[in-house]
Amino acid sequence: MAIEIGLEKLIDSGEFDSFMQNHKVTKYAFPLDKWKGKRIFQLNNPLLSKQTDPTNPRYWITAF
């Protein structure tokens, strides 16, 4: 729950993108435009909470 609250605060403050771009685990994926033209696979997550709306754009970083 604390992680979820922290991530929601990052999204609300506008700092989430910067966090992802600078974190040692996720920074390799940026800039996102380097993925243009690459094959993208959609994965289903059966463990995703029923309260989470996977269509909510605030939970996705998109470049294209």
Please provide a written account of the structure.
The longest helix is centred in the N-terminal third of the chain and has 12 residues. By secondary structure, the chain is mainly α. It is built from two helices and no strands. The protein is 30% helix and 0% strand. It has one domain. The termini are far apart.
Topology overview:
Elements: H1 2-13, H2 16-22
Q: How does the helix and strand content classify structurally?
A: mainly alpha
What Rg is obtained from the alpha carbons, in whole angstroms? Answer: 13 Å
What is the distance, rounded to the nearest whole angstrom, between the alpha carbons of the first and last residues?
31 Å
Strand content: under 5%
Sheet having the most strands: none
Number of strands: 0
Mean pLDDT score: 89
